[in-house]
Design brief:
Layout lengths: L1 H19 L14 E7 L18 H8 L2 E3 L9 H10 L3 H4 L15 H7 L3 E7 L11 E5 L9 E4 L4 E3 L4 H15 L7 E6 L11 H7 L19 H5 L18 H7 L8 H8 L5 H21 L5 H37 L5 E7 L18 H4 L3 E4 L8 E3 L8 H8 L14 H4 L10 E5 L11 E5 L3 E6 L5 E6 L17 H17 L4 H15 L1
Helix pairs in contact: 2-12, 6-12, 7-12
Length: about 550
């Protein structure tokens, strides 16, 4: 009996001790860390998002992010060209330090990227769409990425586990389907996630989905005030750039005039890949897709054949602008639809409340302003980029921010949100205080540096400093010219006031600040020359 009583007492004691122990902690980080959905399109101008301006297009789904979060009106890039921008985003370092200065030089894969750090800290990571460089992004549990620029129809994908595959359909829709498929079928509920949803659209050469080109080719769009800019008051860089809609845009690849018609009209290729671009993009369509395409674009070609001989240069410029906008904006329509589908799923699944949603582009883009297309310049249409961020419970819905934020800041911000310490060599700023409306002690100027020259579009090498009020830029290599723009009084940047005595004190102050930024970010004349020498050795 005594043995039985002792055994009973021992059992009760063990149960009591066990019940008082704290619950076992899971191996993963606590679930309060937010999910991160990073949505980026390619060459999506802020002018083509109705949250910024509804003159050209309505983008109700992208606008939802601003309505439920924050719209940044002075977001910008460090180097306005595709692959370098993506390298800056991933590494949190300026181009001169991460080494990806242009689209030619390879990405240094020894760079540590924020997805690697998030993955190591317990985040499930995935990337779908356009990376642009490399074929095996580090730090991802899953990826399906377009090789290089990718194509708009029936694209190839480089995948983590299936090798290279071709997928039938329209690329924007496919990338959206892959993103939704991962959320529904592969996401591990016990882990926070980083999901990079990266669109090819609206990158050149612009091919909308059938449902959209049937609509957009019938539309007429307002022309920018500076469509016929003559660049008086600017320096050599603006005058010598090869980005004019009439003179430099491809007739076949961009305007979708068939090479055979161009030959019959005696119109030469604008660039050496003009006809090849048409064959590569339109020629990739299957029989059904091509029949639908021809049914619409045949009439455009017929109209051009009948009217070309009687059109003067001004009329041709206006015609090319409309053709450009029809296809460019038509390509954006499917992006907006896809964003809406993904946002809807976040709401339906209950993920929205703990998910940071970012919509941005890898840089800005010219939509006929100054007669241009493309990007590259420190001028606003190229330098500024859309940025809309939603984070329930942190960002007040419908808020706006005017601070000088950059794509350089994404890595620092995401790491801070995930409670991961950022490497000391990252150069961005944590944007979370801005999300909360805390704007004191944030930077008042940003640094910019563009390198890809001589090259396509012939935009000269330049670096500069930009504040909310002013912009100072130095163009170099085959020129030595300085430009200053008053961003408040001259928002279209038509008049270089660098030599205006009224701005002498501004010039002096900005030169000093620019020198300090160059030092802060570890850029220098020596690095300028290093990259010039590397370029010359590569092309010679």
């Amino acid at each position: 009996m005594n043995n039985l009583r002792q055994l009973l007492y021992l059992s009760i004691s063990l149960i009591t001790v066990w019940a008082c122990q704290p619950e076992a902690q899971p191996d993963e980080e606590p679930s309060h860390r937010p999910n991160i959905l990073f949505i980026m399109s390619d060459d999506h101008a802020y002018q083509a998002i109705s949250a910024y301006s509804d003159k050209l297009i309505e983008t109700p789904n992208i606008d939802r992010i601003a309505e439920e979060g924050m719209l940044f009106t002075n977001a910008c890039v460090t180097n306005s060209i595709c692959a370098p921008s993506r390298a800056v985003i991933l590494t949190g370092k300026h181009s001169h330090l991460n080494g990806k200065i242009d689209n030619r030089f390879p990405f240094d894969t020894t760079n540590i990227t924020f997805p690697q750090l998030l993955h190591d800290a317990g985040y499930q990571t995935a990337m779908f769409g356009k990376l642009h460089f490399g074929n095996s992004p580090k730090g991802f549990d899953q990826f399906k990425i377009l090789p290089g620029q990718g194509t708009y129809y029936n694209p190839d994908f480089i995948t983590k586990s299936e090798g290279k595959v071709q997928v039938e359909g329209y690329t924007t829709d496919i990338i959206t389907d892959m993103t939704l498929g991962w959320l529904k079928e592969e996401r591990e509920a016990e882990k926070p996630f980083l999901l990079m949803y990266l669109h090819k659209a609206p990158h050149r050469e612009w091919l909308p989905a059938e449902r959209h080109y049937k609509e957009f080719v019938k539309k007429t769009f307002p022309e920018p005030e500076t469509l016929f800019d003559d660049y008086e008051g600017r320096g050599a860089a603006a005058k010598e750039a090869e980005m004019n809609l009439l003179k430099h845009m491809n007739w076949a690849g961009d305007s979708k005039i068939r090479p055979s018609l161009l030959d019959s009209l005696g119109i030469p290729e604008t660039e050496d890949w003009d006809h090849e671009a048409f064959a590569r993009e339109v020629g990739r369509q299957n029989e059904q897709q091509r029949a639908a395409w021809d049914a619409v674009y045949d009439s455009i070609n017929s109209h051009f054949r009948e009217n070309y001989a009687n059109m003067n240069q001004e009329e041709l410029m206006r015609w090319r602008y409309q053709r450009y906008m029809q296809d460019y904006l038509g390509s954006i329509a499917s992006v907006d639809e896809g964003v809406g589908q993904v946002l809807d799923y976040l709401e339906e699944s209950g993920l929205a409340e703990n998910t940071i949603v970012v919509y941005t582009s890898d840089q800005g883009f010219y939509l006929g302003e100054h007669g241009w297309f493309d990007k590259r310049f420190i001028y606003d249409e190229s330098f500024k980029t859309p940025l809309l961020v939603r984070w329930p419970g942190v960002i007040e819905p419908g808020s706006k921010n005017t601070q000088m934020v950059q794509n350089l800041d994404f890595a620092q911000t995401f790491l801070a949100a995930a409670e991961v310490e950022a490497p000391s060599d990252m150069q961005g700023e944590n944007l979370i205080p801005l999300f909360k409306g805390e704007t004191e002690n944030f930077r008042d100027a940003v640094y910019y540096h563009y390198y890809e020259y001589p090259s396509v579009h012939m935009v000269k090498r330049h670096y500069g400093i930009v504040t909310e009020d002013y912009k100072l830029a130095h163009f170099y290599y085959d020129v030595d010219e300085w430009e200053l723009y008053d961003r408040k009084k001259d928002p279209q940047e038509m008049n270089n006031v660098y030599n205006d005595p009224a701005y002498a004190e501004v010039v002096e102050k900005l030169h000093q600040d620019l020198d300090e930024l160059r030092t802060k970010y570890k850029d220098s004349k020596e690095l300028d020359q290093k990259y010039i020498d590397m370029y010359q050795n590569m092309v010679n």
